[in-house]
User: Which sequence fits this backbone?
């Protein structure tokens, strides 16, 4: 398999995962931002904007919405009181967990008819894919 085939295949997987991710009452960027905060801890708005590929004003609006919904909160940086960090709340963690459980069920339903060998191949590829993501994104995800 060449790089073009790999990229095309991974894009199809990304599309499938987005289509399986219901409900769509929150944007993909909102949920991705919460995921970054859960995995990486509190972060600056500028860092979140860079990770998500959006402008700082757009991230500011998104974080304000997440705050109103009590999924995230702003807090002072303990190392520099002039800096504000964004952190996920317990309610945000609970929301991510609920959505992951629902997505896992839909994915399991989609995989149910696959041969066992295909399921095993997908499971075996996960560690390598995780290393690829970490390397490609510089450990920021």
Assistant:
């Amino acid at each position: 398999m060449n790089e073009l085939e790999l990229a095309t295949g991974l894009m199809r997987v990304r599309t499938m995962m987005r289509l399986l991710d219901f409900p769509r009452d929150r944007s993909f960027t909102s949920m991705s931002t919460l995921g970054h905060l859960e995995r990486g801890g509190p972060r600056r708005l500028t860092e979140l904007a860079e990770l998500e590929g959006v402008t700082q004003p757009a991230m500011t609006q998104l974080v304000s919405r997440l705050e109103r919904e009590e999924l995230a909160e702003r807090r002072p940086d303990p190392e520099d009181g002039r800096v504000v960090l964004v952190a996920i709340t317990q309610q945000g963690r609970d929301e991510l967990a609920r959505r992951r459980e629902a997505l896992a069920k839909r994915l399991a339903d989609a995989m149910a008819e696959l041969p066992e060998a295909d399921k095993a191949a997908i499971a075996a590829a996960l560690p390598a894919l995780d290393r690829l993501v970490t390397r490609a994104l510089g450990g920021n995800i």
Q: What stands out?
A: Residues 3-136 form a domain with the Arc Repressor Mutant, subunit A fold (CATH 1.10.10.10).
